[in-house]
Amino acid sequence: QQQQQQQQQRLQMSSNQQHLQKQQWFQQQQQFMQDRQLQMQRLQIARHWLSSSSSTVQPCPQPSPRRSPPAGQEAPAGTSNLGQQPQQQQQLPPHPQYVQDSADANGTDLHIDLEESDQEELMDQGQAQEGQEGQDAQIFTRLEDFLPEELCIIYREQLGVRKDLYAWQAQALSTPVLQGCNFIFSAPTSAGKSIVYEILALRRLISTNKPFMLVLPTVALCQQKAESLELLLKPLDKVVKKFYGGVRSKGTLIEDNTGALVCTIEKANMIFTVMMEEHSLSKLGALIIDELHLLGCTNRGFLLELLCTKLRFSTATATVQDTVEDVTEIREGVQVIGMSATLSNIKEVADWLGAKHFETHFRPAPLFEYILDGCRLLDRNLNCMRVLQYPSAAWARSDPESVALLAKETTDAGHSILVFCPSRAVCEWVAEMISKHLGELPEKPSKERADTAAAAAAAAALAAIEADIEGLPPPPAHTPGTRAAIMDQLMQVPGSGSNCGPHPTLVSIMTRGVAFHHAGLLQEERAVVEAGYIGGAVSVLVCTPTMAMGVNLPARRVVFYRPFIPHPSSPITPSQYRQMAGRAGRAGIDEAGEVILMALQKQPYTASSLAKLITGSGNRNGYYL
């Protein structure tokens, strides 16, 4: 009888649970329909207002960047979990409401694939368009629609964001993603992925008062991103904690004023282990992973997979609470944001992480890909576009592979060029050979140098006055970023081991505008080379493939001196090719980009095989993965 009673109780509990699940499902459906109706109403009101207003659309007044929540509305969740009283939060601007026709009733799939045929339309999205469509785009693509005005000013005045968002960026920043759901997206290199995850991270920080962790693959990229985040977090009274290389911020891991943690993959995995042991993962608001395709990397992929697995199974299931009157961005747990330019199985990764996914093929600057077979320049269909002409017979004998000739064409047109080599030794040899052929190159003006010219002149004048007062000789008047100033910085590098001073070969060729960059150089030497290239003092940079995941050093033309890494038995994969080719033709710097693969006379490096690498076709079990 006791067993029968227990069985009846279990059946009753099961029936109650099923009934409760049905009620919750119906409530979700009703909430979804109400949200859709509200979105349509807001869109109709906006269109009506725009049609009745003047031709010049005035921006909507933004709320005060710092004010308490409206009456009757709770403060953003997350502050009380830290054992603190809810604090006065930075007010977020109301985000635009999008009608996602591709989303199902549960909002579990968001996949928008912009084909190449849409690129021409997207290229004009930043310009004023006639008709209602242009007016709607002006509402949805403004940076002020997503971030407070203080942060928008920093983006435009200090970080160089001159235009509004691209159409794909505005579509990616949809309502469910802004509310805190996990999000994985893929876009080509130079499409503008960074500002998308920065907007999501900053909104997450403002709404929950919890810091976010940014995981990057290289130390150089961590340094660059930490500097820009320090500028963005300063108006929020937040600081950046740094964990990469030999850098480790002092104090407690997460403090009251912590806004971001910038880490390499290895350091992020260690930090997560500590936070799991201390049961403090709830103090983290978001985890952002750049270069998510490194999950498949042989050496470091397992650490990244382990990091995601720890987060996936150690945090509570996230819940989103919406109200019809106002969309409240409340989500418990850690939001996972991942991005990559070469993530082929994005849907599988998104399903694994329980995330929405977004994919686009839009690229602001068109990319032209060629194969150099001898002296013939072929397109992806192996059609001969032109034949290279050597200046002299002596040049042809000393440069049989035409790499110096390609560099000369680029620099004569006033552009910069990157040459990828498989090893350090080849990198140095090619750089020295190019330098001998080109001689001393003229310096290329750059925006960075123009921005610092006035400040440098004022500082030099002040230093001259002080030296004259003290009776000292005036300091050398080198404008920062010029070749003379870069060489002064290079000569101050102390050297290491038995070498006294900087690399002698690097010194000899940088005076002529050519340099090389690889892991064998000191960190100070690499920093000087990068500064010289960005400032225009260096026009030809020969580097190893690690540059593809390093700092942003774009070029008009990218040349693959050898299509393998680091020896002939290890040909480059399509993912590696797209990462390195993406350095060519960056938006806002060049109108277009060129990529040239140098073919060899043996498989799998012939012109026909390299054409498959460009088009993406090939055998998964063979060379092209």
Structure description:
The chain is an alpha/beta fold and 625 residues long. The protein is built from 20 helices and 17 strands. Strands 1-9-2-8-7-3-6-4-5 form a nine-stranded mixed sheet, sandwiched between helices. The chain has an eight-stranded mixed sheet with strand order 12-11-10-17-16-13-15-14, sandwiched between helices. β16 (557-560), α19 (574-581) and β17 form a beta-alpha-beta unit. α9 runs parallel beside α10 (301-314), α13 crosses α14 and α16 packs antiparallel against α18 (523-535). The N and C termini lie far apart (63 Å). The relative contact order is 0.09. Mean pLDDT is 75; it is low at 52-90, 93-139, 316-331, 448-459 and 618-625.
Brief summary:
With 625 residues, the chain is of the alpha/beta class. The protein contains 20 helices and 17 strands.
